[in-house]
Amino acid sequence: MTSLFRARDAGLACGRTETGVRNSITDVPGVRVGHRTLNHGGIRTGVTAIVPPASNAYREKPVAAVHVLNGFGKSAGLVQIEELGTIETPLLLTNTLAVGTCCTALVRHAIGANPDIGRETATVNPVVLECNDGFLNDIQALAVTEADATAALDAASADFVSGAVGAGCGMSAFGFKGGIGTSSRRIALDDESFHLGVLVLANFGRAGDLRLPDGTLVRPPSAVDGETTEKGSVIIVMATDIPLGDRQLKRVIRRAGAGLARLGSFWGHGSGDIALGFTTANTVLHDERAALIDQRVLNEDRIDLLFEAMADATQEAVLDALVAAGPMTGRNGHHRPGLADTLIQLRSTGTPRS
User: Fold this and answer.
1) Are the C-beta atoms of 256 and 314 separated by less than 8 Å?
2) Which of 3, 172, 233, 265 is labelled catalytic?
3) Does 65 fall in a domain?
4) CA quadruple 253, 230, 234, 12: dihedral positive or negative?
5) Into which family does the record put it (predicted)?
6) pLDDT surpasses 70 at 354
């Protein structure tokens, strides 16, 4: 299950569209999420896995797209997604200096299911996305191992926890404790019910810039000296069961930027802000023999429904991460307050938030 205290429990619902049952990326049938959290000594880090429905993503590649809002990042695998419009491994989220380790784990995972990789057939494109958790985490310790990445994959489930878990363990956002958040929207098309779900790794935003859905600004109780620029990163992963082409997916995931802007982010110079989306409704078979293949796509006269859902779900997923995370003290006594505690205190005292 996701965190017991979430954005909507704090009165932070976003938009008009109905959510899925879980209000989670796993409302998209078959999508699963798993965590491996490392929280000991000066270590505050981990790995989060997003696993598509196919039992073998290398053989059944979901159609996908990526959009880079600001490219101050070290993610792996994005170039091939841009070129071919598919993913062929689960997605791993982690800290910046653990990208290589997680790539190796994904390669081993793919080879285990496909012994022909790199020999009788093509190599594999592992996809790992990252944020820098070095304020709370001793990132130089290189604590994440291949076994941690594998554990996150093995833990993948429709029910998962949000907040300061997995890759989100050591993340910060808007001067508060950040982390993993999620939200979904239900969309009706031709009398069928579909879902668009978002998961974020929130580690971005300048302290004092956070804007709530009612328009008020919330500042952390104290800001760290020198934190006057917007830096960090945010990773947005979108999954849907609506049939889309990779061009349409890119159009949809671009609207993550609208959700981030509503929160007060302007994608600063030092921030790596990346959106990746995939559909479970269209796949490309690795061993396809036909010269021509069929795929369903959305009538783009309806695509505004997805644009709105993407913006709303992104905005709410970030708030979900902030509310669920709670306060944390990490490396060298560095501390981040929790947004939920701050909201409770402000609402009980009536102290202005802006």
Assistant:
1) yes
2) 233
3) yes
4) negative
5) Belongs to the peptidase S58 family.
6) no
- CA-to-CA distance for 5 and 162, rounded, in angstroms? 9
Is residue 110 within 8 Å of residue 124, measured between CB atoms?
A: yes
Residue 271 is among the residues annotated as catalytic for this protein: yes
What is the SS3 assignment for 60?
Answer: strand
Calculate mean pLDDT across residues 225-234.
73
Element spanning 259, H or E: helix 256-263
Please indicate whether residue 294 is annotated as part of the active site.
no
pTM metric for this prediction = 0.96
Strands (E), 241-289: 270-285
Domain that holds residue 336: 7-287+303-349
Residue 212 has pLDDT above 90, yes or no: yes
* Interval 19-32: pLDDT, tens: 999 999 999 999 99
Nearest 5°: phi and psi at 350? 75, 15
List, as one string, the DSSP characters of 88-148: -S-EEEEEGGGHHHHHHHHHHHHHHH-TTBTTTB-----EEEEE--TTTS-GGG----HHH
Inside any domain, residue 30: yes
Does residue 75 have an active-site annotation? no
CATH code (residue 307): 3.60.70.12
CB 25 within 8 A of CB 91: no
90 lies in some domain: yes
Annotated catalytic residue within 138, 273, 312, 320: 273
Q: Which residues of 195-228 are buried (b: 16+ CB within 10 A; e: fewer)?
A: bbbbbbbbbbbbbbbbbbbeeeebbbeeeeeeee
Tens of pLDDT, residue by residue over 42-94, are: 999 999 999 999 899 999 999 999 999 999 999 999 999 999 999 999 999 99
In a domain, 292, yes or no: no
The number of distinct structural domains making up the chain is: 1
**Active site residue: 148, 241, 271, 320, which one?**
271
